[in-house]
């Protein structure tokens, strides 16, 4: 299929993309994974916390059955009052890069604003650790977090899962897995530009080819690493690719968003529609002109500020602060 014309980028977002030029390659191939891991690293946690009344503690916890232990980072305010919300974070990175500090700035902001306890999980990455390793690590971390709510100082009835990009897909997969296994009840799922569909066959996946911050080639690379030869076949689990789920009933209330000019747009819209069709609750935003992770690419852009505010308002409503 030839690439159809893509929607235009927002003026501010497009200007930043243009300024990056060749430094921002949207098309990742498998041979680039090692280099990307070395070049795209998270800010030191000390820098993220500088000037914020937030503490950080690292814990090693039991992993999934038959798997290794898992490391989590726990964030809370220095003046934390027990009984507030908990936020469980699964990081982004296309299933192939990143660590528990990737995107942690957003988690820390919510911890500070809501006096929440935040837990960010270090899951195994593909291709060295293909499905189901990443989602099982994330689920194990959620089970531990919920079971230790009193020790950590939050109300387990106010526990929300959040993730962006691959982390959004993993968050959706964990919510489905928890429903299936009768695991921890979630008050909500905050899915930011989530990576949901291994098939890469939507209109938006063809529109975003060689442009933006993550295009269809990168998407192929990430899904191939996670699923290998199973990709696009009948054996792909709904917990790995939540867009495969045909029953989206009995899920926690969801917030979903995407840019209008990103690969994931159509699968995100379809997932929200599936939740509504099953009688569930979902809030959907499609930000006009947004590329993938536009709020990271252009944090000062008006749509980035609006997206951040919308996510924060939804989270506050869900946890009751």
Number of domains: 1
- Architecture, CATH level 2? 3-Layer(aba) Sandwich
Radius of gyration: 18 Å
Categorize the overall geometry.
globular
* Structural class assignment: alpha/beta
The CATH superfamily is known as Alpha/Beta hydrolase fold, catalytic domain
User: At the first level of CATH, what is the class?
Assistant: Alpha Beta
Summarize the biggest pleated sheet. 8 strands, mixed
Give the N-terminus to C-terminus distance in angstroms.
48 Å
What order do the SSEs take from the amino end to the carboxyl end, as H and E? HHHEEEHEHHEHEHHEHEHH
Query: On the 0-100 scale, what is the average pLDDT?
Result: 97
Low-confidence stretches: none
Order of strands in the sheet with the most strands? 1-2-4-3-5-6-7-8
Determine the number of helices (DSSP H or I, runs of at least 4 residues): 12
- The percentage of residues in β strands lies in 15-25%
Helix amount: 25-40%
């Amino acid at each position: 299929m030839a690439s159809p014309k893509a929607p235009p980028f927002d003026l501010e977002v497009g200007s930043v993309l243009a300024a990056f030029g060749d430094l921002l390659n949207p098309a990742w191939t498998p041979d680039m994974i090692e280099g990307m891991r070395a070049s795209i690293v998270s800010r030191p946690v000390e820098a993220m916390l500088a000037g914020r009344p937030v503490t950080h503690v690292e814990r090693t916890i039991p992993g999934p059955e038959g798997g290794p232990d898992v490391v989590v980072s726990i964030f809370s305010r220095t003046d934390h009052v027990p009984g507030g919300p908990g936020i469980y974070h699964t990081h982004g990175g296309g299933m192939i890069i990143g660590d528990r500090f990737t995107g942690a700035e957003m988690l820390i902001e919510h911890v500070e604003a809501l006096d929440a306890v935040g837990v960010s999980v270090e899951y195994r990455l593909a291709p060295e650790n293909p499905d189901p390793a990443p989602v099982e690590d994330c689920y194990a971390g959620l089970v531990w977090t919920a079971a230790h709510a009193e020790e950590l100082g939050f109300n387990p009835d106010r526990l929300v899962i959040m993730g962006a990009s691959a982390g959004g897909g993993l968050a959706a997969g964990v919510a489905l897995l928890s429903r299936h296994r009768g695991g921890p009840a979630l008050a909500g799922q905050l899915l930011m530009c989530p990576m949901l569909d291994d098939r890469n066959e939507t209109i938006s996946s063809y529109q975003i080819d060689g442009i933006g911050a993550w295009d269809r080639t990168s998407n192929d690379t990430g899904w191939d690493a996670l699923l290998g030869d199973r990709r696009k076949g009948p054996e792909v689990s709904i917990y790995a690719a939540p867009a495969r789920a045909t029953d989206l009933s009995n899920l926690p209330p969801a917030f979903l968003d995407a840019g209008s000019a990103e690969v994931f747009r159509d699968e995100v819209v379809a997932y929200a529609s599936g939740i509504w069709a099953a009688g569930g609750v979902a809030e959907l935003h499609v930000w006009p002109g947004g590329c993938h992770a536009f709020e990271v690419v252009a944090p000062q852009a008006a749509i980035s500020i609006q997206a951040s505010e919308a996510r924060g308002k939804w989270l506050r409503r869900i946890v009751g602060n």
